[in-house]
Amino acid sequence: MPIFPFQPKQLPLPGGVNLAYHRHSGKAPGVIFLGGFTSDMTGTKATTLEHWCRERGQAFVRFDYSGHGASGGQFADGAIGQWAQEALAVLDQLTEGPQLLVGSSMGGWLMLLTALARPERIAGLLGLACAADFTEYLLWEQLDEPLREQLRRERMIRLPCPYGEPYLITLKLIEEAKAQQVLNRAELPIDCPVRLIHGMMDADVPWRTSLQVMEKLSSPDVRLILVKDGEHTLSRDQDLRLLTRTLGEMLEGR
Prior knowledge:
Layout: E1 9-12, E2 18-24, E3 27-34, H1 44-56, E4 58-63, H2 80-94, E5 99-104, H3 106-117, E6 122-128, H4 134-139, H5 145-154, E7 156-159, E8 167-170, H6 171-177, E9 194-199, H7 208-216, E10 222-227, H8 237-252
Parallel strand pairs: 3-4, 3-5, 5-6, 6-9, 9-10
Antiparallel strand pairs: 1-2, 2-4, 7-8
């Protein structure tokens, strides 16, 4: 696995929070990686994509949302709309020309929101285990009434996480996300090429979520790639090869 020892740069945002990022220049369209909930830009998919883009001379950016990784801010203060605005700030301030967004899990939701906000800047979308609207069907609807009452009373709870430290779930996260939902819309007016990769063994985000996204998109150029033995992280060697091969096909198809 490639190692990137240099320190990330910082993008200052209004309010005093800095976003940490790595960026290198190259040919267009550029590639922006949007990570998942509680993930950071040092993960396997992000660094694999950077190495792949460097080898082919493709422009690339990876970054941490506020409260994640090397960025400033507190995780408990974050929300879907805020992180989507941060993705827009990265797009607007750190890139030029058309960009292809690669969104993993929650990043898949954020890439849709970004494409809806800046359609003229988006060359394509590549979603990995796209967790659109996950705060509703994976968090709120899965909580029993005692946990819901605890969340209302204490405004935050901790839930077990199979990948490390427990998830910190805030009432703000749940409530604010309702305004950001996409699966309850009649249509998602996104007309660029879209590829969605989802493991059928995903225990966190059902693969049918990606099918729902596919059905909502207005673009005719949408493909859903199901990996029968794939799990949520899609970080095995064969998953990473599928990721870079699919991204390469999208870039070469322009």
